[in-house]
Design a protein that fits this description.
Length: 242
């Protein structure tokens, strides 16, 4: 947990401009950290933004606080996946991992962003919505969020984690190409029910012109066609040939 030592704080407000999610507030001549909003990203600590050294760490005393910190601190390493940042070997690395097979669409829903963040209760709403539409969520060895889901076939998270706020998190899944329209419609519906934003990555094979016939459902649903493609080069690992 990150706290401000009231004895040391002069109320200069310098720290406020560095907080990634506006979790530092001012009252009665001092600043304090809104613990419901702080993501434990440690930017304020790591950058030593307080000239008085008033921002102090307190030991993260439970699993969910540690999860929150690992997911929000870009230099922290996730214990299971071994990946820094959001701790996920993203489905976007499909050129290497081959997790998305022919006839399937990989789905990466990037929830939250600096300045806004994402509560895990909203990640649950999105995960449950796409599961109901036919998507299969990625397992815990691929993506950290699954560690909070006792049953991947529902997308429900353990109740204890709902109020934790993260800088961002990725809901990763895949579906059959013929299920994509249902999944996208579910996302269009659930985006009205959450307190944050997300961007959507679709992972699929394309022809020489960058086309896949499945993309026509975007037009049917009034979603702009993607503006760019992204190829993950694998950084020395062999490309998947499946
Ligand atoms: S920068 Fe330090 S002294 Fe200034 S308001 Fe923040 S915690 Fe207090
Ligand atoms: S740890 Fe991050 S979210 Fe929390 S107060 Fe510091 S900068 Fe803000």
């Amino acid at each position: 947990m990150t706290v401000i030592n009231k004895e040391k704080c002069t109320g200069c407000k310098i720290c406020q401009i560095y907080c990634t999610v506006d979790a530092i507030h001012y009252a009665d001549g001092k600043c304090y950290i809104d613990q419901d909003r702080c993501t434990e990203c440690y930017v304020c600590l790591r950058q030593k933004v307080c000239p008085r050294g008033a921002i102090e760490p307190v030991e993260l005393d439970n699993f969910y606080k540690q999860f929150q910190h690992v997911m929000s601190d870009p230099v922290e390493n996730h214990g299971v996946t071994g990946v820094t940042g959001r701790g996920t070997e993203e489905v976007k690395t499909n050129d290497v991992s081959g997790r998305v097979k022919r006839g399937e669409v990989g789905i990466a829903i990037d929830m939250g962003r600096p300045g806004m963040g994402v509560y895990l209760r909203d990640a649950e709403k999105v995960a449950m919505a796409i599961v109901r539409a036919g998507a299969k969520l990625a397992p815990a060895e691929h993506t950290p969020l699954a560690a909070l889901m006792p049953d991947l076939s529902t997308g429900k998270l353990v109740d204890e984690c709902h109020h934790y706020h993260l800088l961002s998190v990725i809901v990763e899944a895949k579906c059959r190409e013929d299920q994509l329209k249902d999944v996208l419609q579910a996302l269009q519906q659930v985006e009205k029910e959450i307190e944050t934003v997300f961007s959507l990555g679709l992972i699929m094979r394309v022809d020489e012109k960058g086309q896949n016939k499945t993309l026509k459902v975007l037009d049917e649903l009034g979603i702009p066609q993607p503006h760019r493609g992204k190829v993950n080069v694998g950084l020395g690992r062999p490309l998947c040939t499946e």
